[in-house]
Design goal:
globular, alpha/beta, single chain, TIM Barrel, about 325 residues, ALAD_AS, binds ligand PBG, Delta-aminolevulinic acid dehydratase
Length: about 325
Amino acid sequence: MRAFPNTRLRRLRAQDFSRRLVRENKLTVDDLIYPVFVLEGENQREAVPSMPGVERLSIDLLVESAKHWAALGIPMLALFPVTPVDAKSELAEEAYNPDGLAQRAVRALKAELPELGIMTDVALDPFTTHGQDGIIDDNGYVLNDITKDILVKQALSHATAGADVIAPSDMMDGRIGAIREELEQQGFVNTLIMAYSAKYASSFYGPFRDAVGSAGNLGKSSKETYQMDPANSDEAIHEVRLDLEEGADMVMVKPGMPYLDIVHRVKTELRAPTYAYQVSGEYAMIQAASQNGWLDHDKVMMESLLAFKRAGADGILTYFAVEAAEILKG
Ligand code: PBG
């Protein structure tokens, strides 16, 4: 037996220069997509209690803040409208109102900050009285094909308003192909589609549903007849492959941290631009523990984001985008 190990992996860890030289992954501001909640009215700002640090903003305040976010180098925002209760309906007509909150927010942001990417969420849950992502039958079952036709209208209204990236988060079958066809026919050949391809029926979305005000509408109903079973992995590959075939430019896995195995499989098996959503519940967990002094906020935040890169994500939707960008700037 020799008195020393054959290989000392600690040699490379001994100094900062060598740790930097062998570092395999790096988070940059180019990896960050910032999800924001948009309110009606003017000069409106509301805290989201279950997401400490996150605020809903009216369009005027959103545009002002977006100047700062763009200056930090954040490439894109993802918009989520907080639909007033009286604009919700069984058939979610507000979803494709050309003067709806999301559509107006897109126009205002693109007018002021044309180079900042704007992504919009395509799904009906902010607009239905029952909080489901689609149109329901008498038993509460979400009807695929009727919903898909409305999603196409919603996507077209977003593209018409100037959205750069359309992001269907509804998990209806065939919606990517239908939206792509409509965009092509209407001349929106360069409008990108980021498909929420592997979106799981997760309980980590709770705080988001508070933020957009759909939690109360949804009540105890679940979304497991259309969102994926957390037990499944091969099925995610199937979903992603179909969405790419139907014309998606980018694909997403959601939630993020508990699903990094899926991010890794999607990236290594499909080799397409792959994004992960660090969702509201993941954010809330880190905020809650940090506020209690149980975790070091900045360090845990940066480590969690780096983990997405290591898993293979090309980018991350994260409520930490602004804070992370500030830290990355130094
Ligand atoms: C709506 C939508 C949801 C999220 C993004 N788009 C909620 C849901 O599917 O119920 C969740 C985002 C988050 O939790 O941060 N279709």
